[in-house]
Write a structure and sequence with these properties.
This protein is mainly beta. The protein has 7 helices and 30 strands. The protein has a 9-stranded antiparallel beta sheet with strand order 13-14-16-17-18-23-22-21-20, with no helix packed on it. A 6-stranded mixed beta sheet has the order 8-7-12-11-10-9, with no helix packed on it. Strand 2 and strand 3 form a beta hairpin.
Length: about 650
């Protein structure tokens, strides 16, 4: 029998700091390894073996390159049956699968993910992953046209809209490790697809309020679907948090409807005529001119119980609406839940939610029920980074600090639905695309990727500041902070830059790394700490920019491994042409690393530029449809990954 799914490590924000993380004054002690979600104690590598693998050079090779000491195998490429009993249609290489087929197959563009162990060995578990967006040219046999601009519906049909919605969301699959490596278990009682038409519940302060009400749901407490699912999080009670990021591009309407828009509509990008796809022509809930409140029901953190395939996912409005990126959980010194979040747009904010109540230990039904409400009551904060290396968490509470009716916020629900505008009022720091957030498992320090911002310093745009020090920031970086007193719920923190990415050889790049033994990178995106305190960094340079100035020397997108204690960073993996490397999780025994290869072959961000890879099925561009997929990576000698 599997162990109870709610056995989970309650990370402490008060652990001693790792030596040298922030220079002088840090204690030299490291917290001992803690039990993982199965009750087993994770294996800890000695520092002498850290980053002992052979580094991989930057490369434009159209394939997966990893150190020679390692091997990889392919899992669950787009179109693979999820494993729902009696519903396992095979992938059609010509994209002839129906919308109904796609609803029980792997979605497109794998992104954030997590491994939930099902037994004490850690060799059987659930792999839960996001599917961020679609490539409509690949998804359909004859493709579609008429993306941004909304002037043409060429090729679009109601069936294609349904298939597109079903190709996003979340997959829950069961996997196990055998003598032949990791294999998907099909059929599996856990197998499930959550997609753009899955019924969901809305909970928290904004549920039922006027901005959430629509003609289809006058109560404002239920919604169909989740999509644009990018980063993720995991709760202490063992549920999965998926983040709705670029939801705005799926809502549209005729250009002439873009009159009299509110500041909130412009700020969130829900503007008729600017849509990426033509859903609105065939599914009226996406028509902004007819249903202006429907976009308010997206941009949330969604909680899914991966162990209950019949459970209803819940959108947690207390965490605020934004282009949601990360929902990284930690536990405060007093036992309250803390969730760190980014908002992946230029000049947007970093957020922290602190629950009102404490995490209730235990695995019985009463404890599970109590913990399920933690995400509905608490305080959302926005971060301010000051020039002296200090920072403050500014609460977003109606009636405080200008968040009142006079500034356009009638109640707390409006503060949360329009969290971006609330952050403006209280004075948060506008960041360079804050994306994934990771918490060091021993020290409690928090790291965030700032991917880039080429508009920093442009006319009419904010200029450089201490936290975002470079104008025309092509390369991004990684910023970190230590909460005061080591308490995740603290109101203040100390911060610095772990890395300012880029090629140091380029004049004026401003690149700065934590040590001389650091491989360079650009546009950091995915970020994950394993149980041993190694930081896995993934990059997302635009497909149309890869191999061109100023990214020429950086090669294809890649994954690197960093040892924050020494400042060393070593390149571990480079991916196929056009892909993003994203999604990362290490098994409890630290002997398998799961990584996603997203949108291989994407030559242009709008998907209309053809494809420059056929990975993983073909050997030359155009020979096969490229497919996003998961890699299971292990050392050939069975050792700990990252060594």
């Amino acid at each position: 029998m599997p162990l109870d799914r709610r056995q989970f490590l309650l990370q402490s924000g008060s652990a001693a700091a790792v030596v040298a993380l922030f220079g002088q004054g840090c204690a030299a002690t490291v917290a001992p390894a803690r039990p993982d979600a199965t009750g087993a104690t994770p294996v800890t590598a000695t520092r002498g073996g850290v980053l002992g693998f052979t580094g991989v050079p930057a490369s434009l090779r159209d394939g997966v390159v990893i150190p020679p000491e390692y091997e990889w195998q392919l899992l669950y490429p787009w179109g693979t049956p999820t494993g729902v009993a009696g519903r396992m249609p095979a992938f059609a290489p010509d994209a002839a699968n129906s919308a109904e087929d796609q609803a029980v197959q792997a979605g497109m563009h794998h992104d954030g993910m997590h491994f939930f162990a099902l037994d004490a060995t850690g060799e059987r578990g659930l792999l839960v992953m996001n599917h961020e967006y679609t490539d409509e040219q690949l998804l359909h046999t004859d493709g579609v046209k008429g993306a941004a601009g909304g002037t043409s519906a060429t090729g679009w049909t109601a069936a294609k809209v349904r298939k597109s919605l079903h190709a996003m969301g979340v997959s829950v699959i069961e996997i196990r490790r055998t003598a032949h490596g990791w294999q998907q278990v099909s059929p599996s009682p856990f197998a499930r697809r959550v997609h753009g038409n899955t019924p969901m519940r809305i909970a928290g302060p904004a549920a039922g309020t006027p901005l959430l009400r629509t003609a289809g749901n006058p109560a404002g407490d239920a919604v169909l679907g989740t999509f644009a699912n990018c980063a993720m999080g995991v709760t202490p009670w063992g549920t999965y948090l998926t983040c709705e990021e670029n939801f705005h591009g799926y809502f549209g309407g005729p250009k002439e409807a873009a009159q009299g828009l509110t500041p909130a509509q412009r700020r969130y990008g829900t503007v008729p005529g600017t849509q990426w796809v033509e859903y609105w022509r065939f599914d009226e809930r996406f028509d902004l001119s007819r249903h202006p409140n429907e976009p308010h029901r997206f941009g949330w953190v969604v909680e899914i119980d991966p162990f209950d395939p019949t459970g209803t996912p819940v959108k947690r409005t207390a965490l605020g609406r934004k282009r949601q990126e990360s929902a990284t959980c930690n536990v405060a010194r007093d036992g309250r839940l803390v969730v760190y979040m980014g908002d992946d747009s230029r000049f947007e904010y970093i957020y922290k939610f602190v629950s009102r109540d404490k995490v209730r230990p235990g695995t019985d039904a009463a404890a599970r029920a109590a913990n399920r409400h933690l995400l509905d009551e608490g305080t959302l904060h926005v971060a301010r980074y000051d020039a002296d290396g200090r920072g403050r968490w500014l609460p977003l509470v109606h009636g405080r600090d200008g968040l009142d009716a006079a500034r356009g916020f009638a109640d707390q629900a409006e503060v949360l639905v329009h969290a971006r505008l609330a952050g403006d009022v209280v004075g948060g720091t506008k960041m360079d695309r804050p994306e994934w957030i990771a918490v060091h498992p021993q020290s409690g320090e928090v790291y965030v990727t700032l991917t880039n911002n080429t508009q920093r310093g442009d006319a009419g745009k904010p200029g450089p500041d201490a936290a975002n020090p470079r104008a025309d920031n092509f390369f991004g970086g990684i910023l970190r902070w230590r909460e005061d007193g080591g308490d995740a719920a603290a109101n203040g923190f100390a911060w610095d830059h772990f890395a300012l990415a880029g090629d140091p050889a380029q004049p004026g790049s401003g690149a700065r790394y934590p040590s001389a033994e650091a491989d360079m990178f650009g546009a950091p995106d995915g970020l994950h700490f394993d149980q041993g305190g190694l930081l896995w960094i993934q990059t997302d340079m635009s497909g149309q920019a890869i191999g061109k100035p100023p990214y020429t020397s950086l090669g294809n997108n890649q994954m690197l491994c960093a040892d924050p204690a020494s400042g060393r960073i070593k390149r571990f993996l480079t991916g196929p042409n056009g892909c993003e490397i994203t999604g990362c999780v290490v098994t409890p025994d630290r002997r398998t690393l799961f990584v996603n290869i997203q949108h291989p072959g994407e030559a242009r961000d709008d998907g209309d530029g053809g494809h420059n890879s056929a990975w993983p099925d073909g050997t030359a561009p155009g020979s096969k449809r490229p497919r996003s997929a998961t890699l299971a990576i292990r050392r050939r000698d069975g050792g700990i990954v990252g060594t």
